[in-house]
Write a structure and sequence with these properties.
The chain is 32% helix and 21% strand. The protein is an alpha/beta fold. β5 and β6 form a beta hairpin.
């Protein structure tokens, strides 16, 4: 039995549609676009502004310290004048449980919540933000816990505390409820209305903004801060932002049914067995450590992070082994992105485009760069951009602008800036930033280095060539007492004028030798 389970893509799509009552008659009659939102009047008008970016935050306190709170305090210090916060997913670890929102989200980010001076009084499904908080769901926000594990985790908790083996795996009785907790926390949860009149009044009260596609939800800081859907778009300062749910188009590409594919299958099965043996060795080591001792506590933090990493790697292998041609892909969302990008290019007032999603298409973090899901996201996003380029490529060349100015992601627990080269597709020469080091365990860069190669399978034979370079990587480094943990977030300053210029300012809260320090890296322009 798997320690955690990831619902099928078809289930994720169906459940999320039910929660927002996707295109029900009352919504269609009012001409409401459920993938668009607009800010309150005057909130997002000026072309020069700043915003914050964070991701992979949702851990509770580590052994005696809380990285999330360190990052949150620094965000407050450097967030003056910022218009909103983008979150690249994995709001709650390990399995998105609703009971972990108070400790893993509300308390660390209490300064961004109405009533945050008393965080214990805020329910996870009643949060109202003072500054727009705009997340996308991560894979952990969809994860569930098989009931036997939930029972075991809870019934053995007193014994584990007595023995000073604090699991720190942040699992409750169940899990996310197939994304239920995330939907209740952040989406406009229309399923809660049990009368037609109540739903109608709500729509007429909060879906009052006008977009190019009709009526849409109005986001009002300090009053009504809900999102219309799991994927959505909004406009600010002449820039179109596209928030994607990559959990529904990350199914791995099936292995070839040739001898080469069978060799890959045997390699994956062997790797999975090795990971399971490593997991058992780590669990045995954990039982010999005392969480009450500072050095042991640091080691336990690292080992628990390693256990989560192994679980995720095994899930990726299982998905790859099970992949077939019938696997579900969220074509509805991908088609939506294609059409909205084309519309954006055909709208004269728009001067730039930003996409953010959870899974990174390009990354050199050691555990993610080779995952089947990474390659699947790259392949499917590349398909969309190729179609957009066919439609508006001449406009982009004439204006000397990229199809998309910036693509932000998380999932890899690091901060990384990557620039693609000639990929042979429309994702060439674009800027990609991974911001997934804002609170959970950090990871190292792969030993292979900063250059990403890709193998293209063709009828005349395979070819491998360079597709991207990592220009900045900040993650875990060092060994033993010299180990550094630089947690990070971004402030991005948007300049006025055309072509669009973005100044990226990375901030660091580093834990080194059981002490914290705050600082920043050199800003860079994209």
């Amino acid at each position: 039995m798997q320690f955690v389970s990831d619902p099928p893509i078809s289930v994720k799509i169906r459940k999320m549609k039910q929660r927002v009552r996707w295109q029900e008659p009352l919504i269609v009659e009012r001409g409401i676009d459920q993938t668009q939102m607009a800010f309150a009047e005057g909130w997002a008008d000026s072309p020069e502004f700043s915003f914050l970016v964070m991701g992979d935050t949702g851990s509770g306190p580590h052994q005696g310290h809380n990285p999330q709170r360190q990052v949150a305090e620094q965000m407050l210090e450097h967030g003056d004048g910022c218009r909103f916060v983008l979150h690249t997913g994995d709001v709650i670890y390990l399995v998105g449980s609703s009971e972990y929102y108070p400790d893993n989200f509300i308390k660390p980010y209490r300064d961004f919540l109405v009533g945050g001076e008393h965080p214990e009084r805020i329910a996870f499904n009643r949060m109202v933000f003072t500054l727009p908080f705009l997340p996308v769901p991560g894979n952990h926000d969809y994860y569930d816990l098989p009931l036997p594990y939930g029972l075991l985790a809870q019934t053995t908790l007193p014994l584990r505390r007595l023995l000073r083996f604090k699991s720190n795996l942040n699992v409750g009785w169940h899990g996310s409820g197939q994304g239920q907790a995330y939907a209740e926390a952040f989406l406009d949860y229309l399923q809660a209305f049990n009368t037609k009149g109540g739903l109608a009044r709500h729509l007429d009260s909060h879906y009052t903004a006008q977009s190019d596609m009709g009526r849409c939800l109005r986001y009002e800081p300090k009053r009504f801060t809900r999102l219309p859907n799991r994927y959505y778009s909004f406009r600010s300062g002449g820039i179109d932002f596209f928030a994607l749910d990559s959990n529904t188009f990350n199914a791995p590409i099936p292995l070839p049914k040739t001898g080469e594919g069978e060799a890959d299958r045997r390699r994956l099965e062997s790797r999975r067995n090795d990971l399971e043996q490593e997991r058992l060795r780590i669990l045995e080591t954990c039982t010999s450590l005392n969480a009450g001792l500072p050095d042991d506590a640091e080691k336990l933090d690292d080992l628990h992070a390693k256990l989560e990493q192994i679980t995720e790697m095994k899930l990726d292998i299982d998905k790859q082994l099970a992949a077939d041609e019938t696997a579900t892909t969220d074509h509805e969302q991908l088609d939506w992105l294609e059409h909205r990008l084309i519309e954006s290019w055909n709208t004269s007032e728009v001067r730039g485009r930003v996409i953010y999603l959870h899974h990174p298409p390009y990354v050199t973090e050691a555990t993610k760069w080779h995952q089947a899901q990474t390659l699947a996201i790259r392949y499917r996003l590349r398909q969309v951009l190729d179609k957009v380029a066919d439609a508006v490529g001449d406009q982009a060349k004439e204006k000397e602008q990229p199809l998309v100015d910036l693509i932000l992601s998380g999932h890899a627990h690091c901060l990384e800036y990557i620039r693609t080269v000639d990929t042979g597709h429309a994702d060439a020469n674009l800027n990609w930033i991974v911001c997934g080091g804002s609170g959970y365990s950090l990871r190292r860069q792969r030993p292979e280095g900063p250059e990403l190669m890709e193998t293209f399978r063709k009828a005349e034979g395979n070819s491998t060539h360079l597709v991207a370079r990592s220009l900045l990587f900040t993650g875990r480094s060092g060994q033993g007492s010299k180990r550094r943990r630089p947690y990070s977030f971004l402030r991005i300053d948007v300049q006025d004028g055309r072509p669009l210029k973005l100044v990226v300012r990375p901030f660091i809260a580093e834990r080194y030798q059981q002490k914290w320090s705050h600082g920043h890296l050199e800003p860079f322009e994209v």
